[in-house]
Amino acid sequence: MSTIPDTAPPTTREPRIAGLPVLVYLVAAAIVLTAALTGSLPSSLLSGFAVTMLVGGLLMTVGQRVPVLRDFGLPTILCTFVPAILLFAGLFPQTAAEVVSGFVEDSGFLDFLVITIIAGSILGMPRALLLKAGPRFAVPLIGCLVATFLLIGLLGAALGFGFVQAILFIAAPIMAGGLGVGAVPMSQMYAAATGNDAAAFMGQLMSAVVVANIICILVAGLYNGLGKRRQLFVGFNGHGKLLRVEGRADDFAPAVTRDAATFVALGQGLLVAAALFVFGHLAGGVLPALHPYAWTIIAAALVKIFGLLPRELEEASTQWGDLVLSLFVPALLVAVSVTYIDIGDVLAALSSPLFIGLTIVTVLVATLTSGLLGWLVKFHFVEAAITPGLVMADTGSSGDVSVLSAAGRLHLMPFAALTNRLGGALVLFVTSLIAPALS
């Protein structure tokens, strides 16, 4: 099969949206929009890709064209919230919204992207970095949880919100690392402790998580912008490197990969990620104390540490992860916005200044204490403040993508996933001990 080379000089390259020439994009968008408005949009994987990639590509392009603000996460913020706002205002076709929700919840697009990033990041990570960074990671993870619970509880007591209430209704759901291990099981715990229905607690818990996620994205964008301007102190910004090291820097340098991946290599990377995903669920079924994501991380780390895969397959996994990151992150942000973010809940939460204040302080305490403790154990402050700090306070896997994308550090996804699963389990355990105090 022959290919026609692109002979156009770089200076005359036509503008593109979502990787397509503008005219082609407009035709594709018109087709999808017409199908959505007429109820002819099929509920399938391809339709989900079409809607999310077209919307995400447009919003990403708009955000990238705004000077200064683009360095502070504007493209990610637009992709994360504009679709939810349009849906709330009735301007997003309902048929398209249903297709997108099925794309995320039924077709497993979130698993597809997160597992791919985890596999590619861990298998492409220098072995020395994995061995040195892992044990130290527990310090900022546990430290920021303890500090946040205590400080928010004390602040809530001082302001009349209540010590236990501030912990259980603000700090705990925010720091649980997602809705699945946060608001949903916590509402059941609180219902059992008080005799009320779980629905009585879900609104406030969900609002805390959603509002905190917004703040996390904004703070992540701020870190990204600050990191591009100056180094505030020694070890402040690692430009994506988590661990501060001395001596043999070559041990921590990323592996050199081919300039272009072959089709076979991309297929190999997909298969490796898929096998790790299945193993994670298999192990999670046998030992449910850990989430399947956590088992996937453990499996990928063991494979890397003990060199169980040939170098070419490690490289293939990294290349497949790079492809997915370059193509599908805007699509995922749009899918998350439509499926999980309820602007009505956000607006209701914004009506309580005390609630908003405590939520903001929760995120700030988490990120600053995590950054400080991480810096003390030789992590860079910004990277440690993002994960585990901000990642503990976002909405879980979907929030991780938004936060790390806004921060320009998506390759930290393995540490983010580890933060959510292990940290979330710890938060849920502590919450179960405190919940009886509500009775």
Radius of gyration: 22 Å
Q: What's the overall geometry?
A: globular
Summed over residues and divided by their number, the pLDDT gives a mean of 84
Main beta-sheet strand count, sense and barrel state: 2 strands, antiparallel
Distinct helical segment count: 18
Could you give the order of the helices and strands? EEHHHHHHHHHHHHHHHHHH
Instruction: Please identify the structural class as seen in this structure.
Output: mainly alpha
Strand order of the largest sheet: 1-2
Q: What share of residues are in beta strands?
A: under 5%
Helix content: over 70%
Instruction: Measure the end-to-end span.
Output: 71 Å
Total strand segments? 2
User: Please, how many domains?
Assistant: 2
Low-confidence stretches: 1-12, 247-254
Question: Could you write a compact summary of the structure shown?
Answer:
Helices cover 70% and strands 1% of the residues.
Structure, described:
The protein is built from 18 helices and two strands. It is globular. A two-stranded antiparallel ribbon has the order 1-2. By secondary structure, it is an all-alpha fold. The protein has two domains: 92 residues; 330 residues, no CATH class.
